[in-house]
Write a structure and sequence with these properties.
alpha+beta; 6 helices
Length: 237
């Protein structure tokens, strides 16, 4: 029977995705070799994206450095796939050359699975592949500074409650602090992003604009403070 790599939130998956990524199905996809090709088979509810092309309930050949996104927000990197493929006992008879790396054969030939290898040891979104998790849990200055305005453009709409007279105004600072803490996570899930780099570029732009406006406001505050005391000093002469 042909060995397949299973991907999903099911703990028994070969590539196990954290429960935090609720857009990923428990059994989201299979990856396997077929006549020297690497095939990605989507079996999920929400589908996948391969190089920004929707893939749902179908099979597609994939290549190294393809951008594969599960659901809307989990990036399946090639390092994850390579780690799993390198442990397969069946390897393609015709590798596509060194560009595929050692997991695909190449100059050194295909690796063989050690008899004692434990195949199910890659948990992504939990311990391995934590860069994205770390980025998502970092402070978002754009969300903190712009609040509900940032939320509109990033698919996070509940901060609009600050527009409610009195109640919203009182809670504004608390809401902005919460957005600063959780904004990245909510924005990542709130709208479609081409990939994680696209997400980071947009959030960096918001943060830079927040910095620019903050600096300008400080400069203007100092200017008007100096102007105010100059006027007062002139009036007292």
């Amino acid at each position: 029977m042909e060995r397949r790599i299973t991907v999903g939130r099911d703990p028994s998956s070969d590539i196990h995705v954290s429960e935090a990524y609720d857009g990923v199905s428990r059994n989201h996809a299979n990856i396997y070799y077929n006549n020297g090709r690497v095939i990605y088979e989507d079996i999920s509810t929400n589908g996948s994206f391969v190089n920004n092309n929707a893939v749902h309930r179908t099979k597609i050949e994939i290549f190294p450095n393809d951008m594969i996104t599960l659901g809307r927000n989990f990036v399946l990197s090639w390092s994850m796939i390579d780690n799993a493929l390198s442990l397969l006992s069946q390897k393609p008879t015709e590798a596509k050359g060194p560009a595929y790396g050692p997991a695909y054969g190449g100059n050194n030939g295909p690796h063989q699975m050690p008899p004692s290898a434990n195949f199910r040891n890659y948990n992504y979104g939990d311990d391995a592949g934590t860069n994205i998790e770390r980025e998502l849990n970092s402070w978002n200055w754009g969300a903190f500074f712009f609040g509900w305005l940032w939320g509109i453009f990033n698919g996070v709409y509940w901060p609009l409650v600050v527009l409610i007279p009195y109640i919203g105004w009182i809670a504004m600072l608390i809401i902005n602090i919460v957005l600063g803490i959780k904004g990245n996570v909510w924005a990542w899930k709130g709208r479609y992003w081409k990939d994680f780099n696209h997400f980071k570029r947009v959030q960096k732009s918001w943060s830079m604009w927040a910095l620019y406006i903050f600096i300008i406001s400080i400069v203007l505050s100092i200017f008007f403070t100096i102007l105010f005391f100059s006027v007062i000093a002139s009036a007292l002469r």
